Amino acid sequence: MTKNLERGLVQIYCGHGKGKTTAAFGQALRLVGHRRKCLIVQFLKGSTYSGELWAAERLAPFLEVIQVGRGCPYAGPIKAGLRECTGCGTCFEEREEDRDLALLGWEEAKAALGSGEYQLVVLDELSYALSRGYIEERGFLAVLAQRKAGVEVVLTGRDFPQEVLAAADLVTKMEPLKHPYDRGQKARWGIEY
Q: Tens digit of pLDDT for each residue in 138-160?
């Protein structure tokens, strides 16, 4: 058994159901458990109250997370040292500064994909940056195709362009059948964030 990935694959977790980021962090945790390095770039996310960030700090230097989003201006009261997410959804409302932040994240991601330093690069909520035109699709696909050998890539987000789906080796679509949000349940500390 080889300890390095001979050929890194491209995985996509998409759809409107819950669990895309959770699946990506699970993949990262598995890789880091083998003492391999992972970089996660989170587009349109910028919060200090997410449990996975606390965990990532403890897994450094094997796991690094870069958030390139504004965060939630409506974060609720502090709970156990963390701000409680109100589940308002404003993190995904388009704002002027989002393009600049996405481009900063894309620069970090390009460097990681080309360096060979990381065996796994996760681009969380990338579909938003692509669909809004912050990151040009053709340029993204070129960088993806030219990444260092052995670098696995995980992409998450709701809706990906057909060409990006075609470039992937694995695509899993999360579809909601039932969700507590539909009954007014807010995001829960330790479960959804």
A: 999 999 999 999 999 999 999 99
Give the other-Cβ count within 10 Å of 183's Cβ.
7
Which pLDDT belongs to residue 89?
Answer: 55
Residue 152 contacts residue 119 (beta carbons within 8 Å)? yes
Sequence-ordered list of residues with C-beta below 8 angstroms from that of 180, at least 6 positions apart, any chain: none
Class of domain 10-183: alpha beta
Task: Please report the pLDDT score of residue 90 as a whole number.
Answer: 58
Output DSSP code: residue 35.
Answer: T
Q: With DSSP H G I counted as helix, E B as strand and the rest as coil, what are the percentages for the chain, rounded to 5?
A: 35, 20, 45
Domain ranges for the chain: 10-183
Tokens 């945790």 appear where? 29
Q: Model's pTM, two decimal places? A: 0.85
Q: Can you say how many angstroms the Cα of residue 118 is from the centroid of all Cα atoms in its chain?
A: 15
